[in-house]
Every structure is written in C-alpha cells, then in structure tokens.
Write a structure and sequence with these properties.
Blueprint lengths: L3 H7 L32 H13 L12 H15 L8 H27 L7 H16 L6 H7 L3 H10 L24 H7 L8 H96 L8 H21 L4
Length: 334
C-alpha cells in the first residue's frame, strides 16, 4: 500500500483520468457502483435522492419522538413525485441507499480534509481530490463510487449538521466500540485502547471497565466532535468565499454596465453636438446665401435703365417687378 506521503506527492489527474470530478470544469462521467449498494442505483436516482433528503425536514414539533419510517416515507413520496425517469425504489431501499452514501461521503470528506491540511505548495483542487480518491482506494480496496454525491453534499450545511448529530449516537454493543480508523460514522479506538478493555475480569472490576469504556467513548466523541466542527467550519468558509466571489462578479458586471451607460451617454452627447454644429453651419450658409441674394437684388433694383435700349430696359424692368413681387409675398420690407 502506498503511504499517505506517496499519495500526496504522486496523486494527479494525469495518472488517474477516470477520477475527474463532476463540476463545471469537468463534464459528468459515468459512475460505477463499485463498493456501493447492491441495488445498483443510477446517478439520476442518487441525485434525486439527495435532493429529496435536502428538501424534506423532520417535523420540528415531533423531531425527537418521530420515527424514521414516516420521515423516509415523505422522502420517498418526494422522490417519486419529482422523478423524470423510470424507478420503482421503495422506502427501505432509498433509506439504505442514503445510509451507504452518507457513510462513504463522510469517509471521503475526512480523507480530503487530511490532504488539504498538509497545505502542499502548488497543489490544485483537482490534485487534492485525486489524492483523496487514491487514499480511499488504498484503504478500502475499491474506488470511491459517490463522487457525484460528494460534489453536491460537501458544502451542504444540513449534511454537516446531520454528521454532527450522528456522532452523538453511542454504540449499543461492546463489539461496536472498536472499529476501523478514519470511519467518521462510528466510535474508534487504537490498539492501546483495545488492550485496556480486554484485561481479565480478575484485574478489572465490571464497574472499572464501565468507567474506562465511558471515558474512551467520551474522548472519542470529543475528538469526533472537533472533526465534524472543522468540516462545518470549512463548509461555511467555502460558502463565504463562494459568496464573496459572486459579489465580486456582480460588482464587476455593475461596473461594466455603468461604463457602458457612460459611454453611450458620451456618444449621444457627441452626436448631439455634431448635429448642433451641422445646424449652425447650415444656418450660416443660409444667411450667407440670403445676404448675397439681397446684394444681387439691390444691384438690380439700383440699375439705371435710362441709357439702355428698349429690350434691355424691359428685361431689367421685369427683374425688378419679380423681385418686388417675391419680397411682398415673403413679407420682406424694402
């Protein structure tokens, strides 16, 4: 088995392209159910099951006394009401499938947090995910089958809160006190703890063993409590970062919109100024033509026809009559 350090240094998507996560940067890939439920749920069923679980809450009035069955019947009703594919999963099947998802995703999140905590310089998000997948496979001897679920649940406050609640469930049998390490849904002890619990009854009384067990359970719960709190804090921080990025994008869009509006306003003002210049130019040209026309008419009106022959005198007389008629019709005062 590769060591954690080897996995941290060697895990890349170049070596394991089949582990590309489902995200806007990577298109969804077919998901096998290796290591998952024997019922072979499809990715569509898993996604709708998660949506049902996230949208259906326990009745706050009866939450402490309400059994699991009515709650999961509501989830099953939501599932079948919103499905757009063929599926005949019954309530128990959905409940067992969700249990598999919750346990596996919780374990994978723990491995991801371990890798993220190493703070490797230059390591991208994609490489951290790949290293977590390698770590999961090296421990469980199977590929992580719920990447599509982890992508949806990793930032869910309800999922984090549910993990915090589950840690308060104490084991009912002594055999459940010893479990595999890095299993976030159960209480775990190391080898030294097991040896302490297995001392012969002659050396330890039942009461003493009970106290030891109680103390170990409390220590495990406190450690696990810190782990789930860290997950919840990380989720909240990730949400705040995502929200900050969205605000930055919105601010940038607003800035670009303001610049566009200012540009359009300046362009409109320039067009108005250009139109005003054209109007004034036309006005000057018109006045110039009027002045030239008046000067021309004045020359005609002041022309002396006494020494002209009869035809030329008649021509100028007609011009003068035409000028007088035009000026009278336009209101021009001679």
């Amino acid at each position: 088995m590769e060591s954690f350090a080897d996995l941290s240094n060697n895990g890349t998507y170049d070596n394991h392209p089949e582990y590309l996560p489902q995200s806007p940067l990577f298109p969804p890939i077919p998901t096998t159910q290796e290591g998952g439920s024997s019922e072979n749920f499809s990715t569509q069923e898993d996604m709708l099951l998660m949506s049902a679980w996230l949208n259906i809450d326990l009745n706050p009035v009866h939450e402490n006394n309400q059994t699991q069955q009515p709650y999961w019947e509501r989830i099953a009703a939501y599932f079948h009401e919103h499905k757009q594919f063929d599926s005949d999963r019954h309530t128990n099947s959905l409940m067992h499938r969700w249990s598999s998802i919750q346990i596996a995703v919780g374990k994978f999140q723990e491995y991801y947090n371990q890798i993220d905590a190493t703070n490797q310089s230059g390591t991208t998000e994609q490489n951290r995910v790949c290293q977590a997948l390698e770590l999961y496979r090296s421990i469980h001897k199977s590929s992580f089958p719920f990447m599509h679920c982890w992508n949806e649940l990793r930032y869910s406050p309800k999922f984090a809160s549910n993990l915090l609640k589950r840690k308060n469930k104490k084991p009912q049998h002594s055999s459940s006190l010893v479990s595999s390490p890095s299993t976030p849904d159960s209480v775990s002890f190391n080898v030294e703890d097991e040896a302490t619990l297995e001392l012969p009854m002659g050396r330890k009384t039942t009461e003493e063993l009970h106290k030891i067990t109680k103390r170990k359970v409390q220590e495990a719960e406190e450690a696990e409590d810190e782990y789930f709190k860290a997950i919840f804090v990380e989720m909240k921080e990730s949400q705040l970062v995502a929200r900050s990025e969205r605000i930055k994008r919105v601010d940038e869009l607003l800035r670009l919109e303001r610049e566009r509006q200012e540009f359009e306003k300046r362009k409109e003002e320039q067009e108005q100024e250009e139109k005003e210049r054209e109007r004034k130019k036309e006005e000057r040209e018109r006045k110039k033509e009027e002045r030239e026309e008046i000067l021309y008419e004045q020359r005609i009106m002041s022309t002396n026809t006494t020494n002209m022959d009869e035809i030329e005198a008649e021509y100028y007389s007609l011009l003068k009559s035409s000028i007088i008629k035009k000026r009278r019709s336009t209101g021009f005062q001679l």
